Amino acid sequence: MTQETTEVTHLILKHDDDSSVEVPISDWSSMINEGPGENPKYALYAAGLYRPGSGEICAKHIAMSASSVLIHPYYHYPAIPDPGIKAAILEPEEKVIYTDDGQAKYLAACKDMNQCVVETFYKGLLEEKIDLKYYCVDPYGVKAMAIALQNNRNVTSIDFTDNFLNDDACFHLGEMLVTNVVMRELNLTGCRIGASGVKRLMANLPTNRSLRCLNLSKNKIGDEGAKYILDGFVRGLELPRLILRYNDLTGEGANYLTEALETYDRFTHLDLSWNKLSLIPYGTFHLLLQLSNCENLEDLNLSWNALCGPRIGSGIKAVMSAGKLKKLDISNNRFSDDAIDDIADGMWFAKKMVTLDVSYNPMSVNDALKIIGKMKFGRVKVQNLLMENIIVNSNFLQQLHHIKKIKKKVIITHGDVTESSKPSDPDMREIVLNRADFLTKKQKKVQADIALFAQQLVKEGRTKMNAKAFVEAVEASGLPLNDDLVNEIINAFPGPKSGKGKTIDVNHLVDFAKRKWPDRKLPPTPPPEIVEPVVEPEPEPEPKGKAAKGGKKKK
Question: What GO MF terms are annotated (predicted)?
Answer without folding.
Answer: GTPase activator activity; small GTPase binding
